[in-house]
Amino acid sequence: xxxxxxxxxxxxxxxxxxxxxxxxxxESPYLRALRDGSLAREAFIETQLQFFGAVSHFSRPMxxxxxxxxxxxxRLPLVENVFDEHGRGDLGHGxxxxxxxxxxxxxxxxxxxxxSGTWPxxxxxxxxxTGLAAFDPPLTGLAVFGVIEDLFSAISLELGRGIVSRxxxxxxxxxxxxxxxxxxxxxxxxxxxxxxxxxxxxxxxAEEIEQGLALGGHLFLHLYDDLYRGRGRRG
Length: 235
What we know:
- The protein has one domain: Heme oxygenase-like (Heme Oxygenase, Chain A), CATH 1.20.910.10.
- The chain has eleven helices and no strands.
- The model is unreliable at about 1-5 (pLDDT under 50).
- The radius of gyration is 18 Å and the shape is globular.
- By secondary structure, it is mainly alpha-helical.
């Protein structure tokens, strides 16, 4: 892989924009139900308790992928990302803790985080990220994580707005999601900058990147579909 490109590869960025338009993530059944009021608060909390399993796992395959990159300048953006996930050394501001704070404010029984079993859909998502981080071409892994961060930025903004519009919390009480609405956009850009150069170098690199983008979108958006279908399930 080449060094991160200073200039954006417009062909790659247009490809990403086209994928996001095709996926139309904000019109997923989960987010539509949150907006129109058909997703009950109890069901929302239950699915978010399950989503915590993905939040707490996410940095681990990312660290695994970083270990497979040959140069320090390639590893550094991922290491910085993992550092952000851990509150930049202050675990009280780490993403696991801020998500638990949100759940607590929503009225969740946090003891259920340990008591409740993780749904197989969440386990499958986590296993997929670990497997591709370990065994897929690094460019594919970078594309997967980049597009997930990109999608989560917009989804986080929508979730935060939905929580407030439903009257479950006031805006100042919404933890976790406001941070990710901006931070994950920066994280996504860090991944994309690593892909800009290789995408224009040869057809094989471009194919690996495009496969990763498609896979990342598939995995992440289907996770929300799975959470929506599983609403009302206990444990």
